[in-house]
Amino acid sequence: MTEVKFSDLGLADPIQRALSARNHTTPTPIQAQAIPKLLAGRDVLGIAQTGTGKTAAFALPILNRLAHNPAPKHGRRQIRALILAPTRELAIQIGEEIQAYAKNLRVFQAVIFGGVSQKPQVDKLNRGIDIAVATPGRLLDLMNQRHVDLRNVDCLVLDEADRMLDMGFVRDVRKIIAALPEKRQSLLFSATMPSDIARLSKEILNDPVRVEVTPPSTPVERIRQSVHHVQAADKRKLLADILSDQDLSKVIVFTRTKHRANRVAEYLDKAGISAEAIHGNKSQGARQRALKSFKAGGVRVLVATDIAARGIDVDAISHVVNFELPNEPESYVHRIGRTARAGAEGLAVAFCDPGERTYLRDIERLIGMRLTVVGDGPVGPATAEPHRGGGNKQHRHGGASRGQSQGHSGGRSEDKPQGKSRRPHRRRRGGNGSGGHHHSRAA
Asked: Does residue 343 have a pLDDT over 80?
């Protein structure tokens, strides 16, 4: 079977040149499947995890449409494409990708999210844009103030739709959709397909093509995973011991709460390990500075709540450490997906205290395998064992190189306190991903 190239998809020449400049020649599976359908005008229901290339899968067809049907040279530009994302970080990342792909086009976009002054965004909206990338809360707020006109939108994208519902945005999303023209192309991308998402897809999609490149909620096979059983009071010392190996060059550590993210980052700094915390209580400027420093290698460790579990695309993350396990096993999958990006292998380490064992069982049940148990001392090479239903776990004790550690864990909503042995309700609302604005010209 002949491998599909971007040059085979019929994209406009300015887009092809932008792809070539980024050395993007071969589409990922979801891009290869979705782009031809979208170029043909079909609605698409995409089931894919983060890191599979979803952004280009919907951004390139949108830009192709704008390239062939540009805005008039005179008169105010109207919003033609609306992309909704659950968090400001994901919205900014989508905007950056669109800007890169549209560098040879006269296309204007605004990235709209909360936590910042609305004045710069209102100014850009008044000047006219072609594409709006937005979190639901701030967009609805601006709509209520009559700063946003969606009557000319001919393409709607819901990205990370399951996360959008988890964060309690479904009412806002429905209000926004009600303001759109009925005649439009609609796309919905989700890593999982719970019943709520299935119902929403039926409401907004018209005879959609379903594109599914990986089974929902299955971790990337390239990620090697292990777990430490450790008392909660000993987790910080164990983390510092593991991070003392300089081979762990770029690490994301996930905690369950904002307060603990701060405490862990402070502990690591005092231990001589450069770290920054990122969570919903941080200002947008502080969050962006922390991400920029982490991406550039200014700090080795980013300590984060689930605000970073999806949509944050940082190259060459060597390890993911789940300092605390999530109460929702799907969050584990998204957390460890921050590593093993773009075809690379990944390592994930989980810490499990006695109060988190129920969460660990839920995770292992979801992913269909048991995590390799690492004993006392440094973490050694480990792989996850297939789940066989019993209590069969491998044990390792000391002697191995910490630099080869791997393991895994997840975390609950960052606003929820840590649970004990009682299993909490599976559905939680959390995060403040909506509202605010970042604007850039994609040209």
From this structure: no
